Amino acid sequence: MISLARISLLCCSVLMTQSLIGCSLRPPEWQGRFGGYWGDGIYDSIQLEPGADGQVAISYWRDISADDQQAKPLARFSQTNLGPSLLLQWTVDSQPGSTMNARYLADLDQLEVRYQDANTQGVNVMSRHGQAKPANAALSARPDTIVHEFRLHAPWAEAVSIAGEMTDWRDDQLPMVKGEDGNWRLTLHLAPGIWQYKLVVDGRWQADPLVAESRPDGFGGHNSVITLGEPDPRYQADPAIAAGSVSELSLDSRFVGAQKLMLYRPAGNHAEPLPWLLLLHGYGAGRRQWLDDGQLPALLDHLIASGQLPPLAVVMPDGGTSFYLGDTEKYLIEELLPAAASWGLSSDPRQRLISGMSMGGFGSFYLSYRHPQAFAAALPLSGYFDLSHIPDLDPAKVAEGYHLELWCGQDDHISTSTNQLLAHHLRSMTTPPVINYAPGGHTWRYWQQIMPEVLARVAELLGR
Fold it and tell me: Residue 271: what pLDDT?
């Protein structure tokens, strides 16, 4: 996200709500240390302490462990503060033209930190740092779990850990133990099903050389994949059920050039145009993510065959790392939506919904907000809501003419805080959108867990 070398004061920009009368007797609400993750998984931390003459002493830690209390802060500096609700702003000397600011959100007891330069922008919603967390559940035997030993021969390594769906992709929860033979080992107790993960060797993330199966990780590499016990049958093809078709289509765009997209069509002949779902992928992935990682066609076949879902088409385009902004937004709205009629899909916005996970969750919110007449509903999943992409967000215009409902895992260290931030910004709405929280992280295990519920809402919203 950012590489901070030295932070210096740019200006003092403070929101004054009330004076610090008696602050020596009652510390301001914002005092203390906060930490949180940027969208790329880097953990930063800030400590705020009131000083003399209304000053705020600021210490900044960059790229540290979420449990690290002893690291030396990258920088310390001060700004004048005039109230318990504050806005602090500074520059990053190593990156000309870059700025950062921090704003305390009293109702959430969180610190909203933003970074921006000429090419990059991001948000980090920080919570109280260093709060004790229970040990990873996979370290203990539990009912209905399967014992699996992970192993790596790396006698030269100083530290090896496992990061994956069992840690919500954190690299500091499951350290492996090195034996005298140079093998690192760790035994975990995992629920049946598919697990994606990587090994972190002296800080370097890599696939497991002992595992053949892998999936693209969205960053040019691959995650290792293991299957323990029997996978969820809803995501497995059933010969007794008529299978829908999956085809790859081409579309020439004047905005983003020649494009490929995936189209799922339900089994059978359909005389009338089909209702459909525009389904967006995560950061750095592509049009096949919902097929390869999500195993979506099998679930659709099961739900349609059982009558729980009407015959429904799903369109899965490429979005790269665009966050579905700019030319990608123009391509999807001005070109892909009109082209869908030629594929036998409905051109009626009431028969068209949008959803997606992670970056695609943001994209489904952003596109429906910007084009409220284009979709009957938007259903973001674990959206990473970097609201710097929507600087003029108007709560009065959210869900104006369409239905908005969100899902997010309670253990999602990347997106939970940004969903809370979005809810904070939308609190003035007469009826704020529902955010469905459930156990789970920023993983395909969570998204497969909730997808039947999401598709049930799709069926309801289509009036079937």
Answer: 83
How far is it, in rounded angstroms, from Cα 217 to Cα 106? 36
- Residue 219 CA: distances (Å) to CA of 40, 222, 464: 10, 8, 39
Residue 337 lies in a domain: yes
Residue with structure tokens 């016990």? 229
Question: What does the pLDDT look like over 141-155, one tens digit per residue?
Answer: 999 999 999 999 999
Regarding whether 400 and 273 lie in a shared domain, the answer is yes
Residue 66: give its domain's CATH number: 2.40.128
> Containing domain of residue 194, as a range?
137-231
Q: How many domains does the chain have?
A: 3
Write the CA distances from 220 to 217, 279, 292, 320, integer angstroms. 7, 22, 16, 12
- Asked if residue 275 is part of any domain, the answer here is yes
Low-confidence ranges of the chain (pLDDT < 50): 1-25
pLDDT score, position 6: 36
Name residue 40's amino acid. Answer: D
